[in-house]
Design goal:
Layout: H1 11-46, H2 53-75, H3 80-87, H4 90-107, H5 109-113, H6 115-144, H7 151-170
Length: about 180
């Protein structure tokens, strides 16, 4: 809540800047968690534990979706601390979702031979999947009268990530491919 356009020292101006501070703390915490999960947990899950890549990917998508839906729908603005802590998990889920395809591709002989090409294709797939969500946001926000509200993008993005998690589990792997 709040507004950056409100007069300095007003409750709305202070609320806006308090929200920004919590968002930055959440972002820093999320970056640290992402480094640990992406650098330690994902390789451990895929390598030593032998968990199928699609299950690790689905878990990452579920963490991302939940971290976006819970603050937007359940917690809302009642608790900045709770929202910031849950939202800090978003980079973790996204990091897992980005790390798994790279690990799978680079683990295959064809992928290891041309990592740049495959990495570019994977990045393009992620970008293309984000475009519909981004293109839907402006019309939805304008139609709802919530011009700068973060709730609609959080709900749509969180729901899309959760659907992606389910699809990763339901779509059977191709023969000879990574499970």
């Amino acid at each position: 809540g709040g507004s950056d356009d409100a007069p300095a020292g007003s409750p709305q101006h202070d609320a806006y800047h308090r929200g920004i501070r919590y968002a930055l703390i959440s972002y820093a915490l999320g970056a640290a968690l992402q480094a640990v999960v992406g650098g330690v947990v994902v390789p451990l899950a895929l390598g030593r534990l032998g968990i199928a890549p699609r299950f690790v990917y689905a878990a990452g998508a579920l963490v991302l979706g939940s971290s976006m839906l819970v603050p937007a729908v359940v917690i809302r603005s009642s608790s900045l601390v709770a929202s910031a802590l849950v939202l800090a998990l978003a980079p973790v889920g996204l990091g897992v979702m980005l790390a798994v395809p790279y690990a799978v591709v680079l683990g295959e002989p064809e992928g290891a031979a041309a990592p740049g090409v495959y990495a570019g294709l994977i990045a393009a797939v992620h970008a293309v999947s984000e475009l519909p969500v981004a293109l839907v946001m402006t019309p939805l926000l304008q139609a709802s009268g919530h011009g700068s509200s973060a709730e609609i993008p959080m709900v749509v993005g969180g729901a899309a990530a959760c659907v992606g998690s389910v699809l990763a589990l339901l779509i059977p792997p191709q023969a000879g491919g990574a499970a």
